[in-house]
């Protein structure tokens, strides 16, 4: 039976439907003027199976990668839609991961100042995280996510069996964000994440469906309080201050969500140095949840203090002189500081290096 949750938004409320079958595709046929935009890899993998019924309809198959998450790809969608005489009554149905979501969501939000948009996420990150929150982002020149809109889809359909074909790197990246959201969700959800983890790694559909639902309900509580990212929503960036730095020091060799896992380990080390988190809590989180979520062995130069600090200084969320860090207390309350010192970064890195060498 499909499970539904409703996301409240000042722009429009929308339903998330979790469906183990692809029956939902049939329900989309109610939209007479519709066009599907499909990630080229997803189409290659599913055109003869789960998505076979779409072969007879209008589809735009879009190759996606981070370099193509830009205005040129949006223009390509506009052109194809206009060539097919799309009007204001169009429904655009996007099927793919976070990259396709950002490109096609931006197109849907701007064409005719917004057309009806439905999203079918196919990666773990898109199912458990990016499909709610209403952000669409494009890269511009060398700046990531510089351009964007707030535009939630009118409906999201999550079909977890799509995750069977995701490559290990993208899967491990999504799992990092799933674990981050469970940690933000509190001690109960954290314990549950540790229990679900071995089954999620085996891609057990039931365990993944529960992990996805938990993640979405935790993110939901933040986005309904702070839909337009003016305050509390920044706490969802737990692990990202160090994580973004590690993506840069590794020259993007480490998948995003895996960098976030190391970022959370480092953040907990600082929290423990500052007495915000007990060291026994930090150790148990490392042992029971964070190291079991990590599948990437970092190279020593990725963890070099001078390199990491240089990247953290460039963090776009930084406003004062000090470095920004989001930390968690023992009771999992979140806290943002902007006075992190180089010495603290150095100590946190030194403390973690030995554990990370033994992965
Ligand atoms: N809009 C938001 O709120 C938001 C939030 C977080 C991240 N993002 C963005 O999302 C992007 C990353 O998205 P992602 O992690 O979903 O990756 P992705 O969309 O880049 O997909 C990763 C790879 O997996 C392929 N793929 C997709 N589904 C598949 C499937 N079921 N089986 C096999 N292969 C499949 C894709 O073709 C691609 O090669 C980043 O650009 C990031 O900035 C957006
Ligand atoms: Zn992230």
Helical content stands at: 40-55%
Uncertain residue segments: none
- Tell me the total number of β-strands: 11
Q: Largest sheet, described in full?
A: 7 strands, mixed
Counted by DSSP, the helix tally is: 13
Whole-number radius of gyration? 20 Å
Please name the defining characteristics of this protein.
alpha/beta, 13 helices, 11 strands, two-stranded antiparallel ribbon, 359 residues, 18% strand, binds nicotinamide-adenine-dinucleotide, binds zinc ion, 7-stranded mixed sheet
SSE layout and pairings?
Elements: E1 3-7, E2 14-18, H1 24-27, E3 34-39, H2 40-46, E4 59-62, H3 71-83, E5 91-96, H4 98-110, E6 116-121, H5 124-130, E7 135-140, E8 143-150, E9 155-158, H6 168-184, H7 187-201, H8 205-225, H9 240-249, H10 256-273, H11 279-293, H12 305-313, E10 323-328, E11 334-340, H13 342-357
Parallel strand pairs: 2-9, 3-4, 3-5, 5-6, 6-9
Antiparallel strand pairs: 1-2, 7-8, 10-11
Helix pairs in contact: 3-4, 5-6, 5-8, 6-7, 6-8, 6-10, 7-8, 7-11, 9-10, 9-12, 10-11, 10-13
